[in-house]
Amino acid sequence: MHELSIAEEIYRVSRAAVADHGSGRLERVTVAVGELSAIEPDLLSFAWQALTESGPDAGSTLEVEWHAARQFCAACKSDKPRSDGSWLRLCPDCGTPLAVTGGMELDVMRVTFEPDGGDGAEKGEHDDG
Amino acid sequence: MTTKTERLNGKQSEVVDVRTRVLAANEEAAAKLRDRFRAGSALVLNLISSPGSGKTTLLEATVKALAGRLRLAGIEGDIATERDADRLRALGIPAVQILTGGACHLDARQVGKALDGARFPAFDVLFIENVGNLICPTTYDLGEDFKVALLSVAEGDDKPFKYPAIFARAEVTVITKSDLLPHVTFDLDAVSAQVATLNPGGRLMVTSSKTGEGIGVWCAMIEERLTAKRKAHA
Q1: Which CATH class is domain A3-20+28-115?
Q2: Gap between the Cα atoms of B208 and A25, Å rounded
Q3: Residues of B in contact with A27 (CB under 8 A)
Q4: What is the pTM of this model?
Q5: pLDDT tens digit string along A66-75?
Q6: Which residue on chain A is closest to B162 by alpha carbon?
Q7: Which of B139, B140, B175, B193 is the most buried (most CB within 10 A)?
Q8: Chain B within 8 Å of A27 (Cβ-Cβ)?
């Protein structure tokens, strides 16, 4: 159960992204999670909620884009589906080692935030440069 | 990174295109560690397995076999107690205990801190013994040269397929407690086939820290890898 540690990293990356573009409250964070990343999306969402519920970003949503595992055989030139949920490392048809072409994702894709002074009234607060 | 504005519930929101690896900070820290280990001409192993599979006991046997020839050191990850570091220190090996306070894995920043904090002596081979867990430590690069997965015969012979991520990533799988084979149901050929499927380039060795079986093969592998690393970076 390292989803809490992963949620903390996602939060850190998200906050840094907001800081790069001003300041504000997180509304939604979209992450790509691959089937082979050893992350359970439901646990990750629960960890996100626990992490943010008592802070300034309470109510923000963690949205998970799920990426199924994909394995490609260079000899057959085609994707090979996994038969029973287990990993295949050798092509079931010709025995060639398969290349993992999807399912390892663990990325912060997009951060949506509500800027402070969203109506534009407080813009003078920022001292750029 | 681009910023655009959209309407959401009547409010102005900004969308930032981020596309950053979640573990980017850990990966940067691990890359720094890897540079540091290369500069020190040291080999680093990250040992991952279930609790009680015999990581510390294998290290004790390793220390006894290699101590006079190589400078060894250990970093021990646990949720609580200094027991594992104490066991290595009792054999004269410098060891730092990292207490994670509940976290189920070590990360690269903790390892860096452990190396900085203790006036750590120079070493030829560093063993990082991760928190006992077959899942979470798999995700975190610690700057190691390779991961080692341990599986004791008492854990059952279905584990590689049940925990594929670690057995696919570990360059070496060490079967431990082979002295218990007569007393447990453990099909070594089945495990061997599972590991070969998950990890066609991986090595599997069968050991018993109690009888000494396979310890010579394990230690020879460590010495070979150290020599190869030093040759590659000479």
Answers
A1: alpha beta
A2: 56
A3: 8, 13
A4: 0.87
A5: 998 888 999 9
A6: A86
A7: B175
A8: yes
> What's the complex ipTM?
0.80
Is the Cβ–Cβ distance between B54 and B176 less than 8 Å?
A: yes
Residue type, B213: E
CB distance B16–A17 less than 8 Å?
yes
Q: Does residue A45 sit at the B interface (CB-CB below 8 Å)?
A: no
CA gap A117, B12 in Å, rounded: 10
* Amino acid in position B136: C
Residue B143 pLDDT exceeds 70: yes
Map out the domains of chain A as residue ranges.
Answer: 3-20+28-115
> Across the interface, which of B23, B25, B103 has its CB nearest the CB of A106?
B23
For chain B, domain boundaries = 25-222+227-231
Average pLDDT over residues A54-66: 96
* Best CATH choice for the domain B25-222+227-231 from the list 1.10.10.10, 3.40.50.300, 2.60.40.10, 3.30.1490.20: 3.40.50.300
- Best of B1, B7, B14 to substitute, by most chain A Cβ atoms within 10 angstroms, is B14
Is there a contact between A114 and B105 if contact means CB atoms under 8 Å apart? no
Do residues A3 and A45 touch, judged by C-beta distance below 8 A? no
Chain segment A3-13, per-residue pLDDT in tens = 999 999 999 99
Do B189 and B91 form a contact (C-beta atoms < 8 A)?
no
